[in-house]
Design goal:
Helix content is 39%, strand content 22%. It is an alpha+beta fold.
Length: 340
Amino acid sequence: MGSWCVPQNFLYPQRNQPLLMPVDMREWLPEDDLVFVVLDAVAALDLGEFRRRYRADGHGRAAFDPEMMVALLLYGYCQGERSSRVIQKRCVRDVACRVIAGGLYPDHATIARFRARHEKALGGLFSQVLRLLAAEGMVSLGTLSLDGAKLAGNAAQKANRTLPQIEKVLAEKGYVAGCNGQLVVTADQVIVGAMLSQHPVDRTLLHPLLGTCREQLAEAGIRPKMRTVLARSGYVSEENFSCAEQQKLRLGRTAEMRIECTVCEWPALLASTTTMRQADFLVRLTFEPVPGGTRMRWSERVRPKRGFQVAAPLFTWLGRRQEHAIWTSMKRVLEAADHP
């Protein structure tokens, strides 16, 4: 009978209890939060092109500060969020967006109009950000890599066609409306060139992309001197190699590799040999069960093949990057699988 007299032990929410929260909303976030990086970067940018679009006499209804709006959009993009409606909601529910907005709540129509009105100025921020990175010594053009991805449009076909019409187009042509996004990155993963194209074939975009990259670097005050460019086989053509030779540009394909698992002693040990035209990689991995997952440790030896010893650092970087991505994915698979 004694057990019936003991109340159950629960933690109940105190929704009517006033909170003694910090007055400064910035104290709600850690000091290294991304939002502070975005705010500091935007504060260092020249936003004169944005401000010149507004009346200088102060008449009319007050507009939202362009610096706040730019920071709000850039932070949203960093979070993978482009929808003006979602950004509006985040100004109410998300602490970082509330810090940026500082008590203001621009609606989705205002955010969308700002983006459309200042489309050109927003694009110009890319070169300004490159200038900031160059000032910190983060832009090295010794070795560049480029690649592209097909990006589907948000509306396009859906806005002008019925579902049966879209299905018919897909069956006949095998594509949807969108664009071909292209990027140029440094060995330190800094994006130094970007463009969008309606052309679906990558090999026709190699030199237009490099030309756009040179223009964007020049706008940032960086001397666009390129020496080595790595691209996958989809960019290879005689015309591209000929043009690269005229520009004294070394053009090479990214390394293709074959991975063979040589030892598999689950759940303790995995080993592999990766064979490339330029080098072989011997990788040894050990796994240790820990609460919530598996700790993976790995060691690697690189054996450059004859004639490629000079480029060993480059092959090491490429191989380690690819190996790490492959084995990290494999670790997730192994954790999710049932093993005796």
